[in-house]
Amino acid sequence: MLKSPKPQQQPNSDDGFEAPTPLTTQGTETQFQLIWRAFKAHKLAMISLAVLSLLYLVAIFAEFLAPNDPYAVNARYTYAPPQELHFIDHDETGGWSIRPHVLGYKVEVDPIALRRTYVMDESTKYYIHFLPETHEVNMWGLFPTKRHLFDVDGRREVLFLLGTDRLGRDVLSRLIYGARVTLSIGLAGILLSLVLGVIIGGVSGFYGGWIDNLIQRVIEFIRSIPPIPLWMGFSAALPRDWTPLQNYFVITVILSLVGWTELARVVRSRFLSLKSEDYIAAAKLDGVSDSRIIVRHMLPAFTSHIIATATLAIPGMILAESSLSFIGLGLQSPVISWGVLLQEGQNLRALADAPWLLWPGAAIVITILAMNFLGDGMRDAADPYGSND
Question: What is the Cα–Cα distance from 375 to 35, expressed in whole angstroms?
Answer without folding.
Answer: 13
